[in-house]
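Q: Two folds, back to back.
A: First:
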Amino acid sequence: MVIPFRRAERADAPWIRTRLRSAPAAALALALLVAVTACLAAAFPRALERYEDAGLRHSVEQVPHFRSVVTLTAPAPLPNLPPEQREQALRPATVKRDYDSILGTVRRPFVPDPGQSSYGVVTSVNQAVPEPWVPRPSGLPARVALVAQAGLADHARLREGRLPRASGTVTTTTPEVEAAVSAETAKSLHITVGSVLHVPGAGRDALAVRITGLVEPRDREGAYWATDTLMRTPVLMRVAPVDPESPRYWLGALLLPPEAAPALLGTEGRPYRYWRLAPDPDTLRHRDLAALKSALAALVAGPDLQRIRTATDPLTDADTRLDDVLDSYSGLHAGVSPLIAVAAFGSGTVAVVVLALAAGLAADRRRTELALLRARGASLAGLAARLLAETAVVAVPAGALGLAVALWALPGAQALPAVLAALAVTVFASAALPLRGAAAHRLVRVPALRQDVTSVRPSRRRTVAELTLVAVAAGAVVTLRRQGTSGGSGDQLISAAPVLVGVIAALLLVRLYPLPLRGLAGPAGRLRGVVSHLALARAGRGSASAVLPLLALLTALTTASFGGSVLAGIGETRDHSALLAVGADARLESTAVPLPTGLADRVRRVSGVRDVAAVSIAYRAKPDDGRRSVPVVGVDPAGYAELTRRTGLGSFSEGAVKKGRAGSGTGAVLPAVASPSVADAHGSSPFPVTMEDGSTVTVRIVLVRDITPAVPGADFLVVDRAGLGATAAKPTTLLVTGPEADGRALREAAADAVSVRLRADERARYVDSPLQSGVEHLYTAAVAAGAGYAVLALLLSLLRAAPERVALLARLRTMGLTRAQGRRLLVLESLPQAVLAAAGGVLTGWCAIRLLAPGMDLTAVALPSSVAATKQTLLSPDPWSLTVPTLAVVAMTVGIAAVQAWWAGRRGAVRELRAGDDR
């Protein structure tokens, strides 16, 4: 029979399309992994920049405006000049022209806010007004400052009357001008619309200032009004500020129209011109910080100031405290940036390891296919190029999608760092599989060659690489311990130290992993059951490439433990600092008079209150000769001792200060708990103490404690309140225990005469910069990312072996293996690596924290700069951060293995092949 010839059709389907169609799930998983990783990588620099910009703006906005405004001043022209020339220099057109010249000279990135910047003329010497109807607290006449500031109509609301204006051309000899005053000034100085104040003249009659209107600021806290608060708020001044008994007088401001400024030359006020440049907060960027400092230096004492003097007056001077504000922010940023770098290196390393793990598992899954291609003559470069094209088709669109999501979710930051981060992820994801495949198949070999953990010996190259990495990690740890992160040097090797510790631990555990398997295989073989021996044999025959899953797990667990301990350390520091400041969960205090009778009972009935300790505090009690004041705290021994035990602040027993311990009656010696400084000054002998009410008690120091809840300072004496006089024993403070106490109800019970401080409010006050909260959010994200990548690494490693396990169970079921034995087999097979990773994660996390703790200062993140300057907070291991992630790894391993066994039992092929299943 002749078979007709049929021309074979050419299969022209490209390689990439064929591979994607044959494994769509793997392509989709790779795309999802790359998209998420690229999105996180691109979002990190944008989120950090937003936090840095917000922190810089907050640092400038939170300080008083006189500290953030750049003020330029020029004196009035010399008296020997013609009057017309002197008057012309103070007229609004001239001052406005000089203001425009200054704005044209200022260089970016310092950008003045036109809505809050101001200029005008003001007297440098405050003038006394003789009007008898103006209040005189100590018999001294009130004084006023004459201010002719431009823009009053735009920044004030008219409350009564009308705004002042100038009639005709005002000169030095003008007898009367109009002015406005703020409502607060009018109230304090008894000024009304139509009032006339007479300012002493210089070589002429007094200048009459007629009040035509009362105004209120539109933006009371804006730089226009708040740079010189005297414009809106009068001040009760003392002749000698340091003497509390010095006579007092009122000082206020009269707001003249700019056209009336030349009249100030006829007074003794010595007027001068000023230009105040308020920075625009919306233009402040952290990336411009160095340039901003340079621009300020040039403006205050550099070439820009010389240009301004040429345009305005040779005697023009500039002053600002904005540079101090920027230096303070720089110090805060230097304190938190190393911690941010540690979080970035940790989460970034975990992501890289997981991407490498995914590529390694893909190469391992296709090992037979790639080995066959090499055996049929495929070149190494051609094979790598095909794999690169195959992964790039999936990774590039996914990376672009992740970048787009990050740019959309976090607007307002530079795009270049995000693009570079997403590009790095995409390039690595695209190149990981080709490089791994090329490395594994550089030599043509038998595809079925065993790669067991217990049989493959590490090569010399691997040994040298691991030793090099150990040396680098050791150097980073030593440098971090010596140098610390507080210096803000930005050394990237130091920031990578925690990750390097995890990498070294992973490599070490992979080296040690075969040893226990070999040791347990023999005893397990002598057991009656077959499951244990088979599980150990299966675990021992795992692929030698298990270093990547273990590396991913350990790095993720180390990052999660380290980041969790950082967050826990920040929280504990704030809790402890708030406790030191308040002394309990809430503090009700009256420093002037004793607390109202019955207040303690009302407080006890407030929801959430568990206990109340009433104490009397004499802050100005004087021991011995009375040259030094020491706070004396009178307490109820039982309740206060319980409070010290509960808070951990200088705990002692009830009997230590109980009056009966040292006797009773008049003249009895009271036992006392003292601070170290007081104990050093007075020793253990009895000594008298004069209380604030004039009474005297005799005390003897029996215990020394560094701190006590009632007094936050370093000096104190704690005695039994029953041994004090009737007046001195009256409670002045209530220390409330109860984290859930209702603050609003406490304030209602306390009324207005008693101050109420809550520990929760004090703790919330410690976060005074968005940069601090941003570091917390970034660390939280790093911990969450580390945990997520750990789960992903575990899933990848377990799912990679899923087909082989299902086939194994199918074969073993034909030999009589029951479903329960199949579940135990898969669980026991998965446990060695999971337990190893869990134990290694706890140990590695603990070691990393203990090794690096001396160099990790959390103070800059945990506390505001005003408190952080006197404290130091070092990192310490957090038990929950160490144990929870590791236990989750073990639980997930067992759960996934059980699910795999259940799914294998549900498959039809297993049901067809089963034999000997006794139900």
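A: Second:
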Amino acid sequence: MRAKPKESMAPLLLPFLLLLSSASVQAQQNITKSSSLTPQGPNSFWLSPSGDFAFGFRPIEGNSSSYLLAVWFNKTSDQTVAWYAKSTDPDPAPIQVSSGSSLQLTSGGMLSLSDTTGTEVWNSQVVGAYASMLDTGNFVLAAADGSTKWETFNNPADTILLTQVLTTPKTLRSRIIATDYSNGRFLLNLQANGVFLYPVAVPSGYQYDSYWSMAGNTTKLVFDATGRIYISFDNGTQINMTSGGISSMADYYHRATLDPDGVFRQYVYPKKASNLYKSQAWSVVSMEPPNICEALLTQVGSGACGFNSYCTLDGTNNQTTCVCPEHYSFIDEERKYKGCKPDFQPQSCDLDEAAAMMQFQLTPMTHVDWPLSDYEQYSPITQNQCQQLCLGDCFCAVAVFRDSDSTCWKKKMPLSNGKMGASVQRTVFIKVAKNNSAQSELVGSSKWKKDKKYWILGSSLFLGSSVLVNLLLISVLLFGTYCTITRKKVPSLQSSSNLGLPLKAFTYAELENATSGFQEVLGTGASGIVYKGNLQDEHGTCIAVKKIDKLQHETEKEFTVEVQTIGRTYHKNLVRLLGFCNEGKERLLVYEFMTNGSLNRFLFGDVRLQWNIRVQLALGVARGLLYLHEECSSQIIHCDIKPQNILLDDSFTAKISDFGLAKLLRTNQTQTNTGIRGTRGYVAPEWFKNIGITAKVDVYSFGVILLELICCRRNVEFEAAEEEKKILTYWANDCYRCGRVDFLLEGDDEAILNLKKVERFVAVALWCLQEDPTMRPTMLKVTQMLDGAAAIPTPPDSSSVVSSLQ
């Protein structure tokens, strides 16, 4: 009687069993030739028999239109990627494709990945009879006899899996960040003489000194079935690399990854929630090095975290955290490896010690240090003396004091290898501005976001101020119209008192008194000598007075007219003309004084300007030239753009000087060496030819300055050791053509971290340096390309005759 219920259930169970059997056979089927995958649609990946792993197109997080060819854990909540295809370059990089791409196991038996145009971008380089996604996480291309011809296990990315064995030589390269698979800052290198962890200079593959190593005659790195990761040496010795391993291996997924922070971590993921792991998430069971903040110390480079930040280890989840000091913030919140920037204007070296102490203060921190950034040391000394020495030194960004031996260190930016830990027994004093306006703006901004009442109040203020602004604009327009009508009634400009300009007509005696008899020389150029002075007004306004030498007779008559033209120009990136003197044979121009002098002083000195400052200087010069060429009332061609004629105010804003003087000077006053206007190394080729001179000569000179800003060196350096580097414009062109712009940035880690912008700026410079002036872009186009508002075609060779930039 008991057998009947079983017999009656058999017909019901049979279809279900057949379905399971069919599904199992389907999952275990080998992938045959001519099979293919596409990023979208039902055929986007192939599963392993258990469904634990998948191989195929994986969308990149945050970028739904880009895909990796990858292997991933199919049943974990985040479907963690375990492998991804890389190029076959000397420094292999991840391959990303778009939705129109395809992967095919060709009729010849090769795995081939093609982009949307049908161009092959990756292949397995060997052929097989079939392919298979295994339950180990290994995707293989096999011969007819079942032997492996190609496998993902033998071509690792940043992760190894259970049962995976790496033989020398092999590498794991970290991602740049968790969501960006670009080559990162760290490398695990399995060599014949050992296993090493290296920091790497991105975007190149240059390796700094290792921060973890296990030396010996190495044969392989093994992640065995018990969860142990060990290094096997040729004498049979096995040394554990990690101490991981758990009792119930089958209940967990396993992986070991070289993470973006440079730590090699072993992880487990419970297939079901357990008492040990309450939630289903990856947990760290072992890691090397145990504390990268302590282990990593590089003489070159930023260390575990970015410049001006410090590293600390979160003991709760064994993750590395990078932190900015107080009054500093991350350059990029997502990409914290780029480091931190001050939220205030750093101390100017033009401030005297008393002024510096009024404007800056030191904020103390404990258990933090940047061990390699010091440039001066004092001992014995008191803590107060240590602080005062830093406050009075414009180079000092941080003072460090150690009580145990009364030693003081001064450190300058960028600060590297920052770390926090209980083992750091010293006090750090961070120099910050007392009136931190940038910080105030950030606080104010967050208030607006957090409290609606600020929006309501702001809207009311905006509406009220709009009415006031409109009234002011109407008043200005009416006043301007009146002034225009008034100026039209002025019959002559011969009298300096009738210029109708906001310029002051100085007497020679006034300027002689202001300059103390023309004693302090600021500079000497082709157009004359510049003296420093102070006006006898209530503010004691500091001025720069230029004495114009030997005007042509015809130009003397036109002096007031030309001064009027210069006086009408007003732009943030032009030095402001305040007045003039036209008395007897004396012709003087009075300019605003530029606190930081010329760009020449900073660009070619011992201390390299920060990359972000150089970017702003380039943009400032470009906008100043754009104004002169296209936006002021009458076009002004400068004819002598060079670093000496670019001045910097106290906030390092670039201002072009000496504009409008070309018409005032004798021809031979602006000639150098070959009867051309301008300065050697900055002059356009058309000066040597019998063709008309246009605003494009300034565009050419700007191209030279742009390269000098990028590389922090002069265009012409005949003392350079290597012949190809003596002329910067030629060398930059060679580096660009061979795809190695990074060669121009030797020792400039900050610029290397912004290599895409560097490449853009170099391309713009090469456009500006085209021999044919008609090929050069206008300054409007130059500013658009520098800002990223316009695409930049590949700069042509000088033989090109058609330009898309006009």
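Q: And?
A: The chain has a mean pLDDT of 82.
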